[in-house]
Write a structure and sequence with these properties.
The protein is an alpha/beta fold. The chain has 14 helices and seven strands. It has a five-stranded mixed sheet with strand order 3-2-1-4-5.
C-alpha cells in the first residue's frame, strides 16, 4: 500500500508529517528537518497534501505542487475540531490529515509570488500609516502638555508645528523642542515612505486589468481595487457575491436553535483589511449621497431614513463587496443601475 493522504504541520525548522493509505491506515508519522522536506516529498508518489494556511504555507504549497502533489490549504480554525485532546505537532498533523479529506471542508486558494508581492505592498503601507498615526498622536500629546493644540486630522499637523515654533523658548522649553524635532523628522520620513509605497501600488494597478475594472465602481478607489484584485484573483472560488461579503465579514452573526434564528452584530470574521477599506469607501458614498437624487443616492438616503448611520455604512460596504464580485465575474466594468436598466 502507498500513501494517498498526508497531513503536514508547518514550522520554522522541524516539520511533522502524518501519512495514511486509502483505507486510513497510518503509514508515516515522523518529523522532518527543513532541509529534508523537499527530498522526502520528491521520493513520495503523488498524493494529497493538507496544510494549515499561514504565512509560509503558500510558499511550501507551490514547492510541493511542483513535485506533482495535490496541495490544499485550510484555515486553522476549521482544522482545530479534528485535533484530539492535547496540543502537539503529531496530533496537529493527524488532525490536518483528517480535515483535508472532509467533503465539506473549505480550502484557501494558493497565492502566486506576484499576488503575495502586491499584498506585501498593502501590508507595508498599512504598517507605515499606523506608525505615522502613532507619531502624530505622540506629537499632539507632548505639545498639549504645554498648551499647544490644533484641530484633529493629518492636514492640521502643519498648523500644530507652526504653533509649536511660536511657543518655542517661551511656553515650550528648548529641551522639549529638541524632542519635538525628532518626532517631526520621523513623521516626515514615514510620510515620504508612504508616498513611495503608494506609487508602487499605482504602478501595479496600471498593469492589472482586474484592479482597473474594480476602480470603476463608485466607492472603490485605487487602494481598495488593488487590494481586492490581489486577494481575489479568481471570483469563481465564491458561489455568489453574498458569499464574498460573508467571507470578508460584512454580515450579521447568526445564533439559532429550535427553528429560531437571531441576527446579532456584524461578525467581523474574515479579511479585516478588506473590510476596513470597504467600510471607508461606504462612508464616502454615504457622505456624498446626502441631498442627491441618483438611483444609488436614493437607496442610501432611504436607508438613512430608517436605520442608524453605522448600520447603513455596513450595508453599503456589503453591497460594494457584492458589486465587486459581479464585476470580476462578468469581466466588465461597473454599469450604473440606470444604464443597466436602459
Amino acid at each position: 500500500m502507498h500513501v494517498t493522504t498526508v497531513g503536514l504541520d508547518l514550522a520554522k525548522h522541524v516539520f511533522q508529517v502524518h501519512g495514511i493509505d486509502q483505507d486510513g491506515q497510518i503509514l508515516i508519522r515522523r518529523q522532518l528537518r527543513r532541509s529534508e522536506l523537499i527530498g522526502f516529498f520528491r521520493r513520495l508518489p503523488p498524493c494529497l497534501i493538507g496544510m494549515e494556511a499561514c504565512s509560509t504555507a503558500h510558499f511550501w504549497a507551490r514547492e510541493l505542487a511542483a513535485l506533482g502533489h495535490e496541495v490544499r490549504l485550510m484555515p486553522a480554525a476549521y482544522v482545530k475540531p479534528y485535533v484530539k485532546r492535547s496540543k502537539s505537532d503529531a496530533l496537529d498533523a493527524e488532525g490536518i490529515c483528517e480535515a483535508v479529506t472532509r467533503p465539506t471542508m473549505r480550502f484557501v486558494a494558493i497565492k502566486n509570488p506576484e499576488q503575495q508581492a502586491a499584498l506585501m505592498l498593502h501590508g507595508t503601507r498599512d504598517l507605515l500609516v499606523r506608525q505615522r498615526t502613532m507619531l502624530v498622536n505622540a506629537l499632539r500629546g507632548h505639545l498639549a502638555e504645554y498648551g499647544v493644540i490644533a484641530p484633529q486630522g493629518l492636514p492640521s499637523v502643519p498648523k500644530l508645528i507652526e504653533l509649536a515654533e511660536k511657543a518655542r523658548g517661551m511656553a515650550l522649553p528648548e529641551l522639549a523642542w529638541r524632542c519635538i524635532r525628532l518626532i517631526l523628522a520621523q513623521i516626515e520620513d514615514v510620510h515620504g515612505r508612504i508616498g513611495q509605497v503608494e506609487q508602487e501600488i499605482l504602478a501595479w494597478h496600471r498593469t492589472n486589468e482586474l484592479s482597473q475594472r474594480l476602480e470603476t465602481i463608485p466607492g472603490i478607489g485605487l487602494i481598495t481595487a488593488s487590494a481586492l484584485a490581489a486577494t481575489i484573483p479568481d471570483p469563481s472560488s465564491f458561489r455568489s457575491g453574498r458569499h464574498l461579503a460573508a467571507w470578508i465579514g460584512l454580515v450579521p452573526r447568526q445564533s439559532g436553535t429550535g427553528g429560531k434564528v437571531r441576527l446579532g452584530h456584524i461578525s467581523k470574521q474574515g479579511d479585516r483589511y478588506l473590510r476596513r477599506l470597504l467600510v471607508l469607501g461606504a462612508s464616502t458614498l454615504m457622505r456624498h449621497a446626502r441631498g442627491r437624487t441618483s438611483v444609488t443616492a436614493g437607496w442610501i438616503n432611504g436607508l438613512l431614513a430608517r436605520r442608524p448611520a453605522s448600520v447603513v455604512r455596513t450595508a453599503i460596504a456589503n453591497k460594494l463587496a457584492r458589486i465587486a464580485w459581479a464585476v470580476l465575474q462578468d469581466e466588465q466594468g461597473y454599469r450604473a443601475p440606470a444604464a443597466a436598466a436602459a
